[in-house]
Specification:
2 copies of one chain form a homodimer. The first copy, chain A, starts with a helix and ends in a 6-residue tail after the last strand. The first copy, chain A, is built from 12 helices and 12 strands. In chain A, β6, α9 (195-210) and β7 form a beta-alpha-beta unit. The first copy, chain A, is an alpha/beta fold. The first copy, chain A, binds a DNA duplex through residues 2, 4-6, 14-21, 23-24, 28-30, 33, 48-49, 51-58.
DNA sequence: TTGTAGGCGTTATCAC
DNA sequence: GTGATAACGCCTACAA
């Protein structure tokens, strides 16, 4: 038989409300009864029922995450699991739980989120990436359901989000490459419409400006996606032009890997190549690939923090948080 | 204001119990009222409250997973996310949710599971790997809390589990290697005390027996773990003996990668190398690494199925399920 | 400081 | 078939 608050009350010879107050650490309670109640709790091994509690106080203490299953590649796997770990870390510290689900298609995603909100199973939702014209954001906004986004959304007004400073990290890395004496950096990116790509391109440009170096549009190559083949093709085309270059800055490790493959094939040596995301694969390249670690775990941690804190009425000065990246220098940084 | 079952009842001019019956698709209900109720539901846009439902019928419709955060390497990341995806797949189809958490240490893990059970937030728990003398299994067993294990546990009596048939897949692969004409296969494994390793070793031995080939203990190398360095070292030592061999069967892709690294360094060519797990890295090796895909997603799917079905009283003939592996032949299969 | 009682939104058990 | 009504386990006015 389950032991309930009533049993505890009986055992401690108090009312259920008293037990409840002890549990919630209410002020108005005498030391004496407090002790008696605690004793009873211990003796009966009483554990509060989270469900009943939720129903009574209209708080779930639970967050929902929806993982897009569309891109189940190395990078997203790595990113997702790290972000989820970060979220779990903060959630646990605040006694929150997290429920997750993979969506098969985008349509599923909204359906699932709808269900999550409607069934009132969760207090808030965490979106694992912002797309342009994100329908889920629209939906949650309109519904006034609490949520946080990992990745800066198009409209940031009044919504919680966390992200890296992609402009800054790109700027700093390009600056570093230039300061190392490289004269010509090729920019290779994917997904032209994503904020990430734009921001990193701007960082590239700014680093050139600040260092008083010209760059030509010829050196800026942007493909449609971030797969290995895209990197391979982009650099292949570039090589045909026989332009000189001594560094390749890519916006993604997988692009970088494609680039390195081609460079190796063509025996182009001692060219600095850098990527983003610092996927496990990076250390397995020859030369080992230098990359910018975007700190996925911290992104997750802060996403959960922003959301939970706002649910709990804890005042965070900001509606967003920027997680610093870390450049991991490896052998490909000539 | 939230719309509840009462509002629907009022709107449809029936009792709440009737609405409830309609919702749960009860038999005894006239078409007429059913329609009226559905209309009211639609009109008011009523969504049942999952929490209240849980409280009333003592069912959570929620599973819990605990991820060990100890080993956050490529393999586990890949395995975990795939398994979680599989679980999510079946859970969604049965209208179950899944809550997860990472444990920092083993101690945490039990604490977290305890909390999960006690707070009666979940109906069952899914353990993502079986260790020897697993304390969490002991705990759950004693508590009679429903759970399923991915990975055959030590004591299988009366507990739900899913796993690959490691003996069989090892046997089949070794048989394949032998049939291909290889005369001497080196066995390289890690974690000597794990069932997986033992089973795969037995498969290796059996394949030799069946094909009437002798194998010497000299060719069976087992290290303490499954890291790249271990594979590298084991094969290095073996090479010193100048024994002839034409294939290396490893119990783990990462071991295999270590082996291939050494073989490349020593310019040992055309030796068949195989691994297990089929991690993303496998396709990035040169030559691309042949590997046994253990179907992590299916493992997760069946784990969820076994657990949920048993919770729902759906009769599965078996208390366990074996997921077939798939050998992925790549260039390293000379 | 503590107790009483009503409510959270359902489902389940009775009657009818 | 359908309707009252009592759980489910906890919280929280309000009263004492």
């Amino acid at each position: 038989m389950k032991v309930t608050i009533k049993d505890v009350a009986k055992e401690a010879k108090v009312a259920t409300s008293t037990v409840s107050r002890v549990l919630s650490n209410s002020e108005k309670i005498s030391k004496d009864t407090k002790e008696r109640v605690y004793e009873a709790i211990k003796k009966l091994n009483y554990k509060p029922n989270a469900i009943a509690r939720s129903l009574a106080n209209n708080k779930r203490h639970m967050l929902g995450v929806v993982l897009p299953s569309e891109a189940q590649d190395m990078i997203s796997n790595h990113f997702f699991i790290e972000a989820m770990k970060g979220m779990s870390l903060y959630a646990q510290s605040m006694n929150y739980f997290i429920t997750y689900a993979f969506s098969k298609e985008e349509k599923d995603e909204i359906l699932y989120i709808e269900e999550l909100c409607n069934s009132s199973l969760v207090d808030g939702i965490c979106l694992l990436r912002a797309k342009e014209k994100d329908k889920t954001i629209e939906f949650l906004k309109e519904k006034k359901f609490p949520f946080v986004v990992i990745g800066r959304p198009e409209e940031t007004e009044n919504i919680l989000w966390v992200d890296n400073d992609n402009f800054k990290s790109s700027f700093e890395l390009n600056d570093k490459i230039i300061k190392r004496g490289k004269k010509k950096i090729v920019f290779i990116g994917g997904r032209p419409h994503w904020n990430v790509t734009k921001d990193r391109l701007n960082g590239y440009k700014m680093a050139h400006e600040v260092n008083g170096i010209n760059f030509s549009k010829e050196n800026i190559l942007i493909g449609e996606d971030c797969c290995e083949e895209t990197g391979y093709k982009l650099i292949s085309n570039y090589l045909k032009k026989k332009n000189k270059f001594d560094a390749v800055f890519t916006t993604d490790d997988v692009l970088a890997i494609g680039v390195m493959k081609k460079l190796k094939e063509e025996k182009v040596e001692e060219v600095t190549v850098t990527g983003f995301n610092d996927i496990p694969l990076a250390t397995y390249q020859t030369p080992t690939l230098s990359s910018v670690n975007i700190k996925a775990q911290e992104l997750g941690y802060w996403a959960a923090k922003l959301l939970i804190d706002s649910l709990e009425g804890i005042n965070n000065p900001n509606k967003h948080f920027i997680v610093d990246c870390e450049f991991i220098k490896r052998d490909s940084f000539y």
